[in-house]
């Protein structure tokens, strides 16, 4: 199915690829910070969870701060090691690059990138090509915003991000993606959580920043996927994003498409499209129910997504059986529409 997608051929059913990673810390009874540094613990827990979940792929490593830490940032763990914030050794003003950052080559050889690579290698041996091995990288806008202390800005414009920060971010992502596919990853999710307000020109520049990473992924016959995780930033940019002739799988967040009336969801120019389901659909405190959001079948019918994933890592306490019920019903909706 992945080989077909690389040629722009949509599979007969969507690939079901939820991001299930940090739940492994709960399986191993470890703080998340400790879990992220242990390839053996990660591999064992992911194999256990995948056996129960039965999805088409395993999220071998997922950490939104991986590249920022690799560049020299320090993770400060809070709430008993369950979440972190990034700090820089030499603080600078907003919109400026911190001093003393590592080079992209040094970043790609950092200790936790090495952990992620080792997890991919171990799961490649343990699972014997029975499932897709996924790894997640951070998109250039998101990484550049984190480096320059702009990630919490409410109104961010593309010109607010220094060109040097964007070029550094793109180079790091390229090196990290190369490390992932060399280790055996079949699919690399590049997630943009932060998108500034885009013009047609800045959207084209964004595509150019992504091109080296996606080209190297495809060279290794792995599938590059651009996940647009923040529905608000995608919705405000949807006109320019959906006009760009993307040469890779594009996965917008479901809620970003709510602005379009029925029958008017834009025809994406990507060779293949996917769909990122919101994490709130899987929250453990949500009442158990069988029905889908009425908007979801409409979107699936119109887009015919080749990939179904999640906008982020599934939260602690998620009911695995419920996850697969939701994904399988989405897949069934697409197959029924295709047959019709």
Question: How many beta-strand elements?
Answer: 10
Largest sheet: 5 strands, parallel
Order of helices and strands: HEHHHEHEEHHEHHEHEHEEHEH
Number of helices: 13
Low-confidence stretches: none
User: Based on CA inertia axes, which overall geometry fits?
Assistant: globular
Task: Describe the protein in words.
The protein has 340 residues and is of the alpha/beta class. It has 13 helices and ten strands. The chain has helices spanning 2-6, 23-27, 32-35, 39-53, 66-70, 104-108, 111-127, 140-147, 163-183, 200-219, 231-243, 295-303, 320-339; strands at residues 15-17, 57-61, 74-78, 83-87, 132-138, 187-192, 223-228, 249-252, 274-277, 307-310. The protein starts with a helix and ends with a helix. The mean pLDDT is 87.
Write out key terms for the chains shown.
alpha/beta; 3-stranded parallel beta sheet
